[in-house]
Amino acid sequence: MNETKSLPVLVIGAGIAGVSVAVESAEAGREVVLVESEPVIGGRVIRSYHYFPKMCPPTCGMELNTRRLERNPRVQLLTGTTVTAATKANGSWKVTLRREPAYVNDRCTACAKCSEVCPAEVSDSMNLGMQEVPAIRLPYPNAWPHRFVLDRMACPDGCKACVDACEYDAIDLQAQPTEEEHEVSAVVIATGWHPYPLEKLEELGGGRFPDVIANVNMERLASPWGPTGGKILRPSNGEPPQRVAFVQCAGSRDVNHLAYCSDICCLASLKQALYVKEQLPEAEVTIYYIDRRTPGRNEALLTRMTGTEGVRLVKGKVGKVEQGTGGDLMLKLEDVERGTLEEAHADLVVLATGMVPNVGEDLPFSVKVDQDGFALDDLPGGLTVAGVARRPQDVVSSVRDATGAAARAWMAGEGVR
Amino acid sequence: MERVGLMLCTGCEIGKNLDLKALGDLADEAGAVTTVSHAALCGPEGLAAVRSAMKDENLDGVVIAACSSRAKIEEFRLDGKIAVERVSLREMVAWSHPGNDEDTQMLAEDLVRMGLARAKVVKSADVLDEEIDSSVLVVGGGLAGLSAANTAAGCGREVILVEKETDLGGYLAKVRNIPPQEPPYDAPQVNPVPGLVEQLREHARVQLLTSSKVVSIKGQPGQFDVELETPEGARSLRVGAVIQATGARPYDTDRLEALGGRLDNVISSHELDGMLAAGALERPSDGAAPRRVLFVQCAGSRDPEHLAYCSSDCCLSSLNQVAAIHQLSPDVETTVIYRDMRTPGQTEHFYLAVQDHPTTFLARGEVETVASDGNGALSVRVKNSLLGEDVELAADLVVLAVGMVPESADGEGIRILTDATRKLETGDSDKQREDARKQIEEYARFEGTEILNLDYRQGPDLPVLGSSFPDSHFICFPYETQRTGIYTAGTVRAPMLPARALEDGQGAAFKALQCTAALARGETVHPRSGDTSVPEFSLQRCTQCKRCTEECPFGTLNEDEKGTPQLNALRCRHCGICMGSCPERIVNFAEYSVGGVAAMVKAIEVPEEEDEKPRILALLCENDALPALDAAAERGKKWNPWVRIIPVRCLGACNVIWIADALSGGIDGVIMIGCKSGDDYQCHYIRGSELAAYRLENVQETLDRLVLESERIKVVELAHDEWDRIPAVLDEFAETIEEIGANPYKGF
């Protein structure tokens, strides 16, 4: 068999699943075009502080994957790129890619001079809008590709402070979007997920109280490059919380919201409870759950946290979160074990919100989805799905799935040239 | 390299903060043939200047004194043929130290000297060109193995599958349905095994051997020579890669006595599978049809006395059986007592569907005991349930949803037993023989447990981690094992559902074909995938100390009779741990050698004691510590200017001679910063920091002999994201060194 003869595989999305599909495929010998709509790779994992159950930083594995990506001549990484059209004809796919204007080009050395003079501030999407950053900045430490990005829309009229400050001719405010056509043998959808919107959980205080946050926000609070520099603080007053409540299945396993279980939230909350205890040993943490779902070796984290002083796991369904009297929050819940209705107080409430697949309007071609909106394989059609676009799953499962997807894409694209 | 050029970048504060002329002069001192300096070496004009110098001066090596080796990688790869040495004047000097300062300048000059010194020592290496077989051996014919075979064959590989039983399919061979994995996820799904078996029987590239086993696997990936025992007799064949899909066995119900594991009418979930497949639900005691069936979840799982982990498929498997019972005998009452109902993801739909059945009762609780009245009727004591504190439930048949135990063999355990057995015969002293006898006793359970029968010095099977799963990086790189070209799939790798085992086989097959594809290109695989240079052993100086053969994380080296290492280059992942282990310094890579780093250490200028400028050598792991320090620099963090940094492949890939050289050369302290060790280790080479710490213990003796303080050397573990901590680590070490005072060997 001759790998190089088949057309490249197109991988859409450069989060952990997409990056894994790309490097695995390329190391096996297939050409890969990896597109990412954001200016950097890493997707959701890079916005996490640590992975459960090992409590290690996602950037560690991503460092290695980045090295694998950049040194492999068979991968073409296109960030700031979306697929605008894709058609299947005569066995192969013809795809149109739109590349966002390269306001900052490859000449950028990441010297930061532009950032220092930029007068405009924008909401920091890497930090989920939890802080403002200069309109031109490095998205995160060790970001890949390692160059600055500019939110052009935020530039004040006529401002070219960054252009003047740049010693490397790396900024072009007049850059235009470009389009390119590619012919590929197979398509892998690895578009990932977004958190279930907090605002839809109004009854749980979502969007109503600053101290009711989503689990994804907690990751940013704990991260050294987060809005608080890694300090877990109440958004309302910047004080460390004394009592932290985690509300599990916030929007998951609920026919009014997401009917499925989002797979990662139990472990994410246990992990975050550990963040809290490591930083604020005196804090009282309570996790309200329906079932504690910590499959496989993840059980170790449950065991560890159940044995941690100041951490309580309560089988209970939180029905309502209201403003408390002392500036805190009041949770109304059913304690399932005691069969009683209870009230509890907390300074910070973390809603363990679930995962919603980025499938559908995000893609320029129609993809079959299941009743929950997750994308389905169409192997005869040269299409496969990897990661959370396929089903709710954690990082290790996404990587496993991505390796399998590389195999499926290989077979679907074999001989397509 | 013979003809080395120094390429100095003056951009990104380098030119502003440093005396470039003085740096350029170092090239002459070091015998470099040319110096180019440019305000943006990485830009098109800068690169053009580098290329023209390469051509005009016929260079075979360049030292790029600019930014970190992790920045502008593609640009400075140049033509890929020339040796490129990166010196980080930006992150390690200009961004992290005050400009136009004596100490900063000395630091920059040292780093340039070090880069030039290494460039002279670096050699170019030939790429391995070996005959690589691309076929795949699959050991185990359960769902994962069948899926792996199907995938590898689908990707064009020849496949041979070996199954020890007479039938293919493993525990699923006789099962009708599996829990749902396809929309709408609310009803059992047809077991894919029979279809897969049929498909594989027809496949031209697949051979299925049942009632067969592996007698031995010799050689290395791309060139594994396999001996099989089949009903037709012995068979020899060559394969490129191996997939171990040996599955898991059910936890032994006999060990669950309190749960009635030894009672007649208490059966395991697997026994129930057999009944359901046969279409007859019967009580074993009297063959009567049970009216009330009760499932006990987590039987032996999530229990430190038995299996500490969750077996991941028991909840869904029980629901699947409940659904099957409904279909078979709709009137039977089924009760499931669970601690947590674990139906993750979209299998939640199935949970809801089963819950809706009128004769099904699913309740949270903990089963304490299952007892028999002597006539076959059972009573089940449940605590902490919603039914009350303590309740007794009656049942005619109790099903223990037992967990899974991986069918792995502990290669290291077997090896210890084998070594001890040999020691017992050949031991020199009574003490040695007595120790061996004790070890044999302790490791007796490994007797005869071999599965792959690898001809590897470090043992005949894959090393295992906690709970006996033979993987090595189970979050980011789940398929990696510690043996190159051997991958695991299915429940031997991690507890999982049948549908996941099927997907797992696909991934493992892909890793297997990727491995042989990489080897055919002369490249190694994860984590240094793409790298082509292999270690060279100068065996005439080998003292047979066996450190390299024991410490290699990937079992690369075998030994001959005398204990001399035998390199299997295709097993090698190029980490350099053998190089770090060797007291005779006979192991080297062309571009990463003991001599190369030693030359860098020697290139550090050590000021006289009265100058009060201590010098510290910092060996930093390039995977985690170096990126952390780069990020610190980028964020404007500062650290002590006495520190001279050398990035290394792994702390395990550091030869202690560098430390001895540094200290005997008057350097005041050596700090090594690597990845976290322990059960949740973060080292890509498993035990890098541990090995470094262990080797330093031996260096301590040398220190004592030289009457040097032990605080002068230190190993620190640090994670990739601890960039806010690493400058303080360096500063604190510098303070310690200052307190101890100057190295008395300065000037000798």
Could you explain the architecture of this structure?
The complex is a heterodimer of chains A (417) and B (748). With 417 residues, chain A is an alpha/beta fold. Chain A has 2 domains: 3-100 and 177-192 and 358-413, FAD/NAD(P)-binding domain (3-Layer(bba) Sandwich), CATH 3.50.50; 196-355, 3-Layer(bba) Sandwich (FAD/NAD(P)-binding domain), CATH 3.50.50. Chain A has 9 helices and 21 strands. Chain A has helices spanning 16-28, 43-46, 58-71, 113-117, 161-165, 215-222, 265-279, 299-306, 395-413, and strands at 9-12, 32-35, 75-78, 81-89, 92-99, 121-123, 132-134, 136-137, 149-150, 178-184, 186-189, 193-195, 212-214, 243-250, 284-289, 311-323, 329-335, 340-346, 348-353, 355-357, 383-385. In chain A, helix 1 (16-28) runs parallel beside helix 3, helix 1 crosses helix 9 and helix 6 runs parallel beside helix 7 (265-279). The two termini of chain A are 13 Å apart. Chain B folds into 5 domains: 1-124, Rossmann fold; 136-247 and 449-520, FAD/NAD(P)-binding domain (3-Layer(bba) Sandwich), CATH 3.50.50; 251-406, FAD/NAD(P)-binding domain, CATH 3.50.50; 536-579, 2-Layer Sandwich (Alpha-Beta Plaits), CATH 3.30.70.20; 592-748, Rossmann fold, CATH 3.40.50. Chain B is built from 20 helices and 32 strands. In chain B, helix 6 (143-154) packs across helix 13, helix 11 (411-426) packs antiparallel against helix 12 and helix 16 packs parallel to helix 18. Chain B is elongated, with a radius of gyration of 31 Å. Chains A and B meet through helix 1, helix 3, helix 8 and helix 9 of A and helix 13 and helix 17 of B.
Short description, anyone?
Chain A is of the alpha/beta class.
What topology emerges from the helices and strands here?
The complex is a heterodimer of chains A (417) and B (748).
Chain A lengths: L8 E4 L3 H13 L3 E4 L7 H4 L11 H14 L3 E4 L2 E9 L2 E8 L13 H5 L3 E3 L8 E3 L1 E2 L11 E2 L10 H5 L12 E7 L1 E4 L3 E3 L16 E3 H8 L20 E8 L14 H15 L4 E6 L9 H8 L4 E13 L5 E7 L4 E7 L1 E6 L1 E3 L25 E3 L9 H19 L4
Parallel strand pairs in A: 1-2, 1-11, 2-3, 11-21, 13-19, 14-15, 14-19, 15-16
Antiparallel strand pairs in A: 4-5, 5-10, 6-7, 8-9, 12-20, 16-17, 17-18
Helix pairs in contact in A: 1-3, 1-9, 6-7
Chain B lengths: L3 E6 L4 H4 L2 H10 L4 E5 L5 H13 L4 E6 L16 E6 L1 H5 L7 H20 L14 E4 L3 H12 L4 E4 L14 E2 L10 E2 L2 H10 L3 E4 L3 E8 L2 E8 L2 E7 L1 E4 L3 E3 L15 E3 H10 L13 E8 L14 H15 L4 E6 L9 H8 L4 E5 L1 E7 L5 E8 L2 E8 L1 E6 L1 E3 L4 H16 L3 H13 L43 E3 L9 H23 L15 E2 L9 H5 L5 E3 L5 E3 L9 H5 L5 E2 L5 H10 L12 E6 L3 H10 L8 E6 L7 H9 L4 E6 L13 H18 L7 E5 L8 H15 L8
Parallel strand pairs in B: 1-2, 1-3, 3-4, 5-6, 5-13, 6-9, 13-24, 15-22, 16-17, 16-22, 17-18, 29-30, 29-31, 31-32
Antiparallel strand pairs in B: 7-8, 10-11, 11-12, 14-23, 19-20, 20-21, 25-28, 26-27
